[in-house]
Design a protein that fits this description.
87 residues, alpha+beta, 22% strand, three-stranded antiparallel sheet, globular
């Protein structure tokens, strides 16, 4: 699963790319941030995933310009703060 975007103001949801259970095709969906654990920043070398990321960000006015190293680092610093202890 690849985390590609977040909703910083809402602090509850993230946009991810992953494999569908049924079709085993790559899909882009929004899920709750608390469902993710053991995440880390890594480079993506999968050309299909890279293409999906580019398609996602090309829908915006700024395109891939927003998807910088600073954006990714800020996102991953913020996400652990969203997760509240269960119980």
């Amino acid at each position: 699963m690849y985390i590609i975007d977040w909703y910083a103001g809402m602090c509850q949801a993230i946009t991810v790319i992953g494999l569908s259970r049924d079709s085993k095709k790559l899909i882009t969906i929004v899920i709750r941030a608390e469902w993710i654990e053991n995440f880390r920043v890594k480079l993506c070398y999968n050309p299909k995933v890279c293409s999906k990321i580019k398609t996602y960000f090309d829908k915006e006015e700024t395109g891939m310009q927003r998807y910088t190293e600073k954006f990714v680092n800020d996102m991953f610093i913020g996400i652990p703060q969203w997760i509240e202890p269960l119980g």
